[in-house]
Structure formats: structure tokens, C-alpha cells
From TrEMBL:
This is Peroxiredoxin (Alkyl hydroperoxide reductase subunit C). GO terms for molecular function: thioredoxin peroxidase activity. The lineage of its organism: Bacteria, Pseudomonadati, Verrucomicrobiota, Verrucomicrobiia, Verrucomicrobiales. It comes from Rubritalea squalenifaciens DSM 18772. The active site is at C50. It is found in: Cytoplasm.
Length: 208
């Protein structure tokens, strides 16, 4: 699994769906210098665990917006699948009401660039393309800063849902560091003491 932290987030241009609108050329470039981005991958539309995550992101969308963060979902489904799911009521297994964009990674290139694509392709002895497993995305999440640099990533296996609370905590930690130059220790929460990024600051914190 590639570690993208500290590196430029892989660029892409793809179709996406926001509400009832299909966007032809959606990319991360539009957010450079303007917003942080939480880009999360999920396996499939019209499944069981995935809608709980997508609805949970929506429930907390005001918290992300207050932190100047753009939430973006992505799976290997087509834009037409995204559109249908977004227009299906929640009580029928849909995600109607989700307001952030969903990217269609139908060619699997985005998932591959972020190294969250499950399954493998290979060429057999007769030069035929073979696929082992299902080519869908793991539950990857990437926090990208305003300069387009990945600052945090986490990848879960498909049965394991993520924590929105932890995602917000890490955003708070990054923004605290950017604003104050202080590093945030384990389980740090917004409003708690942080540490100066030197040995004196660490000693001061540990002595409390």
C-alpha cells in the first residue's frame, strides 16, 4: 500500500455527480489554495455499509464546512449509478439528500493512483487480461491541504466502516498545527494542550 502522506495528491479529471447534476470534468485543482479536501473511497453504490458512511458524512457536513473542508466521495461506479443512488430515497436504500460530489472512477484509474483498488489484473500465457478478485475500492480516506498535499490517510478493508469523529479530529489537529506551529499528541482534541515542536516543548508538556 503506497504512502501518499507528504506528497502531492494524485490529480484526476473525471465525471462526478452533485445532487441531480452530472459534472463532466471534475478535478481537485479547483480547490487548490481555497479549501481543504477530504477525499474518501467506498466500494459500491447500492450496498449496505456504504450508505451509512455517506449519510454520516452528510450529517456532519456543517462541521466540515466550518473547517473549510470540501468532502468528496469516489467509487468505481459510473456517473449514472451515482445519479440513480442519489435520487433514491433513504428508506429505499438510497442516499437522497447527500449534497457533496461523488466521483465516477469507472476506469479504476483514480483508485489505482491512490492505491486503494482491490483485486488484480494480469496477462496470462495467451496474452489475455485476467482479473483476480473484484476491482472496487477499499475504504480509503485522504486529507488534502490547501496546497494539494496529502497530510493524512487511512485505508480500511471493505467490512470496516470509518470514524467521522476521528476524521474531524485529524482536521482540527492539522489546522491547529498550521495556525500555532504546535504539534498534537495522541488523542489530542480541539481545545486541549498541544506541544511546541522542540525538545523543550515536549518536556514541558510531559511534566504537566
Amino acid at each position: 500500500m503506497a504512502v501518499l502522506v507528504g506528497k502531492k495528491a494524485p490529480a484526476f479529471s473525471a465525471k462526478a455527480v452533485k445532487g441531480e447534476t452530472i459534472i463532466e470534468n471534475f478535478s481537485l485543482e479547483q480547490f487548490i489554495g481555497k479549501k481543504y479536501v477530504v477525499l474518501f473511497f467506498y466500494p459500491k453504490d447500492f450496498t449496505f455499509v456504504c450508505p451509512t458512511e455517506l449519510h454520516r458524512f452528510q450529517e456532519e457536513i456543517a462541521e466540515f464546512e466550518a473547517r473549510d473542508v470540501q468532502v468528496i466521495g469516489c467509487s468505481t461506479d459510473s456517473e449514472f449509478s451515482h445519479w440513480a443512488w442519489l435520487n433514491t430515497p433513504k428508506n429505499k436504500g438510497g442516499i437522497q439528500g447527500v449534497s457533496y460530489p461523488l466521483v465516477a472512477d469507472i476506469n479504476k484509474t483514480i483508485s489505482e493512483d491512490y492505491d486503494v483498488l482491490a483485486g488484480e489484473t494480469f496477462i496470462d500465457e495467451d496474452d489475455n487480461v485476467e482479473i483476480e478478485g473484484e476491482l472496487v475500492a477499499y475504504r480509503g480516506l485522504f486529507l488534502i491541504d490547501k496546497e494539494g498535499i496529502v497530510r493524512h490517510q487511512v485505508v480500511n478493508d471493505m467490512p470496516l466502516g470509518r470514524s467521522i469523529r476521528e476524521c474531524l479530529r485529524v482536521i482540527d489537529a492539522l489546522q491547529h498545527f498550521e495556525q500555532h506551529g504546535e504539534v498534537c499528541p495522541m488523542d489530542w482534541e480541539k481545545g486541549a494542550d498541544a506541544m511546541q515542536a522542540n525538545h523543550e516543548g515536549v518536556s514541558s508538556y510531559l511534566s504537566k
